[in-house]
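# step 3/5: fold
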Amino acid sequence: MNPDRSPQAAFGARLRRLREAQGWTQDDLGERMGYSGRHVSAVEVGRKVPTLPVARSADTALGLVGTADSFEREWHDMVHGVMLEGFPEYVGYEGRAAEIRLFEVGAIPGLLQTPEYATAIEESVVMHGAIPPEQAVERIEFLTDRQAVPARHLPPVVIVVLDESCIRRMVGGRTVMAAQLASLIDFAERSHTVLQLAPYELGECRPFKRQINLLTMADRAVMSYVESETQGLLDREIGSVLPLVRAYHQLQAVSLSQTESIDMINEARKGML
């Protein structure tokens, strides 16, 4: 393996080098990690993309937990390398936020995506040549890790307003889309969540024209995150963030209630079955 070929190759090459320095076979390391020797071999030569559990298991086996040279840190650096500028920093704050407010147009936001829906989106990105297949896998692994945030012991309040286009645009086929819509309904039923739809009828009165993420931290500091096709921007300046917070409240006021929104999602889901 040429470690300069890709971050994935560098990960595998370093795993092999440290394993051999211990005098272990692939089966030896696999036993210590809780994986088969064949799995270790596949990671070392790049046939399998290293996942976060693999990175953490390697750290435990090799005594690297919590160190600057840990495989977990390398995994995060590897995954962050395929994200838009600003997004990894945003996710760090998202994981500690007391309240998360999202607005999205055209697609279900990442925090609410099912694995199948997320896979369909990433496969489309690969098909268009924007990223290689291994980076798509890394993005899905990263999303899975990120989705654990709302399930933490003291979960944040998560308020989501979706443009109606999010539930109308078919992604992954009828079966995948029906399951995604069912997942949205489950999300709305949690005690710490709110889900509303901004219907097409709002027309030009909808205050946002693109995706908006707003975070409120435990100290009541607020920040926003927005994306273009090529760049993400995390903004912590109160003067520019507060107008977005006000606009978000206005959006909620003119959107459908959660009950009306669930009714619309259920009706859309019936059309998928």
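# step 4/5: annotate
The chain has a mean pLDDT of 90.
# step 5/5: archive (pending)
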